[in-house]
Design brief:
binds nicotinamide-adenine-dinucleotide; alpha/beta; 7-stranded parallel beta sheet; 371 residues; Rossmann fold; 36% helix
């Protein structure tokens, strides 16, 4: 791989260390300028890494003569960016380096699961969608952050770019046919296609049926159901035409399976997504397009933070009681599901290679709902 004397390529490093073996990637982002001989040292449980910048070139690693901890293998990082991003990072973090913070990535020897794919994620400016976009980007996908909140979408795309990923922010209100069609076309123009759609944008509205205004009912159904339909139609047309097939994933909920008081339009919409998914699984099969639903339990995003006081008020209980006795009561361990949990399941579905998994819904909820 053209490394200089004394250095090892990644395979040699993997071979030299006992498995699982590691490769460190450091992206200089303090000011982007090449830096010479700034030493980085990071001690992991089983190895120590020392590094010196010699510019944003290929990463080289080699055993260091002066092991500070004698029994540990010690490596020296001589430059910044590994040329082959075909390995997903197993761990991430930040190092303080002469007053600046630089991100580091620890790689394991597994291939990226989304390399070469283009993924459009709606509602990816925050919460669950944002984590999915970041996860897909780390796994090698080019991601499109489609959100009605344009500034936040741009900020999310910029974060991914800063970490070495490829991302594009697209302004899209998923209830607006023209915006959806234009946003999908923009993504296809920029990245040459769309292979994965995650229809994730959503809102919540807390009210008993008897007090629910019609416009709130319509607004919620429009975002969840019109949005899922419009984005599916635009992407499916392209996937069918391109001959590349694809994967469509809907963000359902435990409320795709279960009901809770005060959430009539949400429960209705989330149940509806399962019906749409099954039809798309059947119609999409001829074009190699799969469709599945991810059904999370409660995740502490903005959507949930907002409803804690709202539910407390409607039910006449404290916010702590809402968390303990309403949101997490039926879980096996009293734990919230996390955005990482949901992103991992979504990644599994997006990367799954065959039609064996289509028309399904996977619940990720700490056992709140078991099917
Ligand atoms: P969030 O509020 O953090 O994110 C929702 C995103 O959707 C925001 O970026 C928002 O700008 C965007 N959005 C809203 N309306 C839109 C529109 N018309 N067009 C485009 N984008 C729009 O919420 P979240 O918790 O990350 O929710 C994401 C999805 O996950 C939703 O479908 C939600 O129903 C589902 N979900 C959430 C939970 C949970 O506990 N948080 C549980 C199950 C399912």
């Amino acid at each position: 791989m053209g490394y200089k004397h004394g250095q090892m390529d990644s395979q040699s490093v993997f071979d030299a260390l006992s498995t699982p073996t590691f490769l460190l990637k450091i992206i200089p982002h303090v000011d982007g300028a090449p830096r010479i001989c700034e030493l980085v040292r990071y001690t992991l449980r089983d190895l120590t890494i020392k590094g010196a910048w010699s510019g944003p070139g290929a990463l080289g690693l080699f055993p260091h003569a002066l092991a500070p901890v004698a029994e540990l293998p010690v490596l020296e990082v001589v430059s910044a960016v590994h040329p082959d991003r075909s390995y997903p990072p197993a761990r991430r973090g930040r190092l303080r380096l002469f007053g600046g913070l630089i991100p580091w990535y620890l790689f394991r020897g597994e291939p990226m699961r989304m390399k070469g794919r283009v993924a459009l994620v709606t509602g990816a400016a925050s919460g669950i969608g944002k984590d999915i976009a970041e996860t897909f980007a780390r796994e090698g996908a080019k991601v499109v952050i489609a959100d009605v909140s344009v500034d936040a979408a741009q900020a999310a795309a910029a974060e991914i770019q800063k970490s070495g990923g490829v991302a594009l922010a697209v302004a899209m209100d998923v209830t607006q046919e023209q915006q959806v069609d234009a946003g999908v076309a923009e993504a296809i123009n920029a990245f040459g296609g769309v292979d994965v759609l995650v229809s994730n944008a959503g809102i919540q509205h807390i009210a008993p049926v008897v007090d629910l205004p019609l416009d709130q009912w319509r607004k919620l159904l429009a975002i969840h159901l019109d949005g899922a339909f419009l984005t599916t139609r635009a992407c499916l047309r392209h996937m069918a035409h391109s001959g590349r097939g694809g994967s469509i994933i809907y963000m359902g909920s435990v409320h795709s399976k279960e009901a809770s008081p005060l959430k009539a339009p949400y429960v209705t919409a989330k149940h509806g997504l399962i019906g749409l998914c099954k039809v798309v699984a059947k119609e999409g099969a001829a074009h190699g397009v799969r469709a599945n639903v991810v059904c999370p339990g409660f995740v502490r995003t903005a959507l949930v933070e907002k409803q804690i006081p709202e539910q407390a008020k409607e039910l006449g209980i404290s916010e702590q009681e809402v968390i303990k006795n309403v949101m997490l009561k039926e879980t096996v361990d009293g734990e919230f599901t996390t955005t990482e949990d949901v992103a991992a399941v979504t990644l599994f579905l997006a990367a799954f290679p065959t039609n064996a998994l289509t028309g399904q819904s996977i619940v990720v909820s700490h056992g709140w709902f078991m099917q």
